[in-house]
Amino acid sequence: MNHFNGFDLQAAARLSMTDHGFDAGFPLAVKDEVTAIQQHPPTLESSSATQDMRSLPWSSIDNDTSRDLDQIEVSDEVKDGSIRVRIGIADVDACVPKGSAIDQFAAKQTTTVYTGVHNFSMLPDELSTGLTSLLENQDRLSVVYDFVVSPQGTVNSSAIYRATVRNKAQLAYPSVGAWLETGANPPAKVAASQEITRQLQTQNRVAQLLRGQRYLHGALNLQTIETNPLMQDGQPVDIEMHQRNPATDLIEDFMIAANEVVARSLKKAGFSSIRRIVKIPKRWDRIVELAAQYGTKLPDAPDPRPLHDFLCERQKTDPDHFPDLSLAVVKLLGSGEYVLERANETAEGHFGLAVQDYTHSTAPNRRYADLVTQRLVKAMVAGRKTPYSDDELAVIAQQCTRQEDAARKVEREMRKRIAAVVMRGRIGQQFSAIITGVNDHGTFVRTKAPHVEGMLVRGSKGVDVGDKIQVTLLHTDPERGYIDFARS
User: Fold this and answer.
1) What residues have CB less than 8 Å from 247, skipping those under 6 apart?
2) What DSSP string runs through 62-84?
3) Mean pLDDT of the region 122-140
4) Is pLDDT above 50 for 2?
5) Structural domains counted in the chain
6) Spatial CA neighbour of 144 closest among 384, 385, 388, 381
């Protein structure tokens, strides 16, 4: 049943998708190709071009419900105290060749859209959660990013090659993160394997080294709030906060390092590629003003290192308001975008990560830019010419940026609608809240539990951003995603 509290969230999600230029379903040509692939799946190659690495203790960490697994990891200590990290990326290109109907659909969508009540996949589920997913105990083709991290956290050497892999333990962020943080209550698959236990402990250690090195260069420490609906019988009944933990940090650190390795490798090989950039912020002057409100003087010229130091100080001083400060900084930095970097030229770097060479290459089931990059990497490894012209890459980069922006709008609309549906049965109840915004449009609040945002339509006089108040829920409008409160 799609209706909940009189509102059809599934229909709203499909309408939001089409309103923002997405297809809400797959055409017949795509379904026909999927059937053909299922009847004749790609064979596991045993040639010298593909290494057999199925015996290694690979594991994956993702969300509890994720089935579209893009990467697995394994690490080894080497003699000089360095750690060798190998990240296996699902070889999606093996099932989705350039120019196929599936590829053409993915090129239009460019991303999987997560609406909370339904995932609109870039690739058919038969592939993204099946044949091209690195599921536990399944032999899969992959592209491996292999790099060595020094005791100081620098990447000293790297290689990329194709391999056959097998995920030995499919793990989830919450349970692995809690165990890494406390040392207690390891997940069952971790407790059952000393090898996996050692693996994750080593991976956690090297991730911290990589993160420390990034912070030395000024990578920004930001903590924005993300939420998910808690579903029961297919319906949202509450709102849960995403909690960062050592497991989410581990995967983030590994993926950033891998993306840098890929970007540098393509550049060294003389390949044009798609880069992921965050430009030097045009509104740096406003970031300077924002820091000055807290008694911190930032330099007149944009510089990520002092901004990083300011953010770390604020996180320690006022953790309750740090997500709101982070969100303000994110908005002033501007959105990331995809751009063409031509061979032998240098595109703008990623200001937020404080790195020059960066791409997206680790999620080919979910992002089209990553699938295109995978094809470039496979051509580079095989010694072939690039499969894309510069003009093709430029067009793809623009489409990926455009659709990513559209996906954010869909997901934001649906978060508001889901919150309005969840709160509909709580009208008249009181909540602890914080003022998050005061402008010409009104006064906005965020409740603490559940974590939802709305407008303070009564009792807003005399309040300002950061004030903690009690509010009473007055009204919700799921169609428009409105939630109205009064000061208690």
Assistant:
1) 61, 171, 173, 174, 176, 177, 180
2) E-TT-----EEEEEEE-TTS-EE
3) 97
4) no
5) 3
6) 381
Q: Coil, helix or strand for 367?
A: strand
Q: Is this model's pTM higher than 0.90 or not?
A: yes
In a shared domain, residues 205 and 66: yes
Domain identity same for 52 and 169: yes
Is residue 164 in a domain? yes
Tokens of 342: 């031509």
Report yes or no on 394 lying in a domain: yes
Q: Does 199 share its domain with 250?
A: yes
Please state, rounded to an integer, the average pLDDT across all residues of the chain: 93
Angle at 109 between CA 108 and CA 113, to 5 degrees: 175
441 vs 454: CA distance, rounded Å: 12
Reduce the DSSP state of residue 262 to 3 states and report it: helix
Same domain, 132 and 146: yes
d(CA 114, CA 116): 6
| Residue 323 sits in the same domain as residue 406 | no
Does residue 421 sit within a domain? no
306 and 202, same structural domain? no
133/222 same-domain check: yes
CA–CA dist 151, 470 (Å, integer): 49
Is residue 150 within 8 A of residue 82, CB to CB? The reply is yes
Residues in the chain: 488
- The residues near 269 (Cβ < 8 Å, ≥ 6 apart) are 380
The tokens for 102 are: 């599936």
Tell whether 185 is covered by a domain: yes
- C-alpha triplet 218, 311, 329: angle, nearest 5°: 90
233: left (phi over 0), alpha (psi -120 to 50) or beta: left
Residue range(s) defining the domain that contains residue 126: 3-278+338-413
Confidence of residue 1 (pLDDT cuts 50, 70, 90): very low
Do 76 and 185 have their domain in common? yes
Query: Using omega within 30 degrees of 0 as the cis cutoff, is the peptide bond preceding 319 cis?
Result: no
C-alpha closest to that of 326 among 287, 297, 355: 287
